[in-house]
């Protein structure tokens, strides 16, 4: 039985909700009227016909055309998952988008979020088994699911959204789904993208030469957009952005503004400055300029605050005064996955924070980098959704044409692949080089990943998954973190490692408001453990629990309540995974010994992220890769120890290491002997220092027993 457009329209207009058997609410009718205006609504018949005739289809359409919210609902009307006991999945690269869209669609379907419509993101599962038939989930969550259910049996249709963003997980999912589609002719697949390189995806998904994957195009719905460039390159894009927003506020007609910046701190600072200036303007020109609200948006913001971007602009301050304006200052998230109604002006500085991986020095860092031309176009399109709009590009037209890359560089070509490789091996993929990637990653990046997983003993020397590796793959964590957590009972500190892992999985817990930096630093000093930042994180969490999760306590100590709550939630989730694999939760009462063991357990995971102090200028050199780094000012170590282990690497004015703890060289040799095998070391101060440790140990033991070290570290 094929479901047709007229049938769906009848169901939509019906008095009772087919999914809950309840009468529809008033809100349902209001939202339905808004849905009818979306371009996709007019193409319902065409879509349902194509969907019923093909196993795989590719959909392209501009942001705001209704792809993410409407297509999954139409699929639900067609698949009837609630009757057939199946689920419709729609993946999202960003967890914020998954949450926000699920909420919107639950409202549109007039059901409760978390019941018929839900979302799953890392560490949060808002679905109900047996009830949820439409699930918005992040791409990495679906990939995880595939590890345990290789044919994704519980789904009737899987919609991959935002594939043009080319995230690592979405790329791998495309390959997996292509393969599953051959084995499961009943599984339907929809691939959705915003930009026009659809042909690449269509070609990729052709399973047989005689059946072509059709393209479903949602027509443009945008109004004309005027694009402006700067005459000269801007040296300070933040300052230029603020200036432009205020210029629009002063001189342009009514309509909201969307400004793209790169990160939390930059966004908060810009919001404050814009607000101050706009208030001044308002006081000086109360008759000609309206009030302005500035709404920040980035992924670590608590969900209630994220929802604020959908609020309407403020009204006039006085009854006949000029009406107000809303300015949303957002990271890249607003570029693709979310559409805000009412935006007429877009300010685009041409940069975003992007993950860059350097396989030579094995570091992945976030760098502010130029966006692609496709991204710039995507950003501009937000201005034309309500009526004709304007986009102000804070770079020259020449740079746009000559300097920007054509499209987004796939993440798989610029990432650390260790997590992905571990998952692929767990999925039973033997030949990683010849796997059907949509874009093949650099062999060097694959080699580095295999090498790391081998050092971590997740893969044996032949590249087969070990028992340890199989458990590591079950943790939604980087392999190093998973390893450290799994071995921690041997060091009698698994309770503590669990806390530290949870704390390392949330964004920064420390608040440092601009006008209270000194107070914030003093508060932080009180909680700092001089032996290492990891121990400080542990201390913060323990104190938070001892103070009964008290809001005032976090406030007084300049800590983010939201981040701590998240850490607590992540801790609970990880704990249940540990219990599933019988990993004991142990603590030591002797604090000195405990602190030492914790750092030993850290070595088992992060032995590749060790730095050695060179000379006494405070410079460190990373082990083996010989990258010069310095301790970040936020680091709380009491001294400058000779050997440190670090978790993060940032490049600002110079390369810094963050989240640092002191380690002893004996531990490096004892717990990760195969990595610290001195014959593989470049000559230099670090090697000599390690050699001294080996010699000393050999002296004590009578002979150098390198082989035994190798064994013991493998077992761990
Ligand atoms: P697309 O995926 O094609 O970019 P969407 O389906 O995301 O389009 O959006 C369709 C419409 O739904 C847009 O007009 C958008 O403003 C609206 N919308 C989506 N999510 C929300 C939300 N959480 N709150 C209010 N409106 C929303
Ligand atoms: Mg979308």
Automatic annotation (TrEMBL):
Keyword tags: ATP-binding, Helicase, Hydrolase, mRNA processing, mRNA splicing, Nucleotide-binding
GO molecular function, one term: RNA binding
EC number(s) on file: 3.6.4.13
Region (Disordered): 694-716
Pfam family, one: Helicase_C
GO cellular component labels: post-mRNA release spliceosomal complex
GO terms (BP aspect): spliceosomal complex disassembly
This protein's name: RNA helicase
Name of the top EC class for this enzyme: hydrolase
Start and end residues of each Helicase C-terminal domain: 241-428
Entries under InterPro entries matching the protein: AAA+_ATPase, DEAD-box_helicase_OB_fold, DEAD/DEAH_box_helicase_dom, HA2_WH, Helicase-assoc_dom, Helicase_ATP-bd, Helicase_C-like, P-loop_NTPase
Domain (Helicase ATP-binding) ranges: 48-214
Catalytic activity entry: ATP + H2O = ADP + phosphate + H(+)
Species this protein is from: Crucibulum laeve
Role played: Pre-mRNA processing factor involved in disassembly of spliceosomes after the release of mature mRNA.
